[in-house]
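Q: Please design a sequence for this.
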């Protein structure tokens, strides 16, 4: 027994979070989703439990505030006047800017959608050429 080397202890295998193909393990994805759901629900419950219930109201529904009305930095709804000049809030300039932003977002979505469709068609043609054994570049 003097000449037999003792076996070296093997390290315990670590659990792998990625499979051999490089994709995440199913258990990792499920655990991450469960942790995210618990964090979101816990945050909602915490905010709901610690949130202020708002100003107190008397029996007629009137607000009870100490010190009278508080000034507001942002105007309250329906507490102003209709737009009269082009630069007023809610005027044609503001509405045309909203229209321009919406049109830009829709245009961007169309470009992305069409680009994806072209990429899928090109990938299908490439796979068909690879399956036939001829790539089309060599006569």
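A: Design:
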């Amino acid at each position: 027994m003097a000449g037999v080397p003792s076996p070296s202890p093997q390290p315990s295998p670590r659990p792998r979070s990625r499979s051999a193909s490089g994709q995440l393990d199913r258990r990792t994805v499920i655990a991450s989703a469960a942790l995210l759901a618990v964090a979101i629900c816990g945050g909602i419950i915490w905010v709901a439990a610690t949130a202020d219930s708002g100003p107190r109201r008397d029996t007629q529904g009137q607000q009870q505030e100490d010190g009278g009305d508080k000034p507001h930095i942002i105007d309250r709804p329906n507490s102003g006047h209709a737009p009269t000049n082009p630069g007023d809030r809610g005027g044609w300039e503001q509405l045309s800017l909203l229209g321009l932003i919406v049109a830009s977002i829709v245009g961007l979505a169309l470009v992305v959608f069409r680009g994806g469709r072209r990429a899928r068609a090109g990938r299908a043609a490439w796979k068909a050429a690879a399956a036939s054994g001829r790539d089309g570049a060599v006569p």
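Q: Thanks. Anything notable?
A: The chain has a mean pLDDT of 76. The chain has two helices and two strands.
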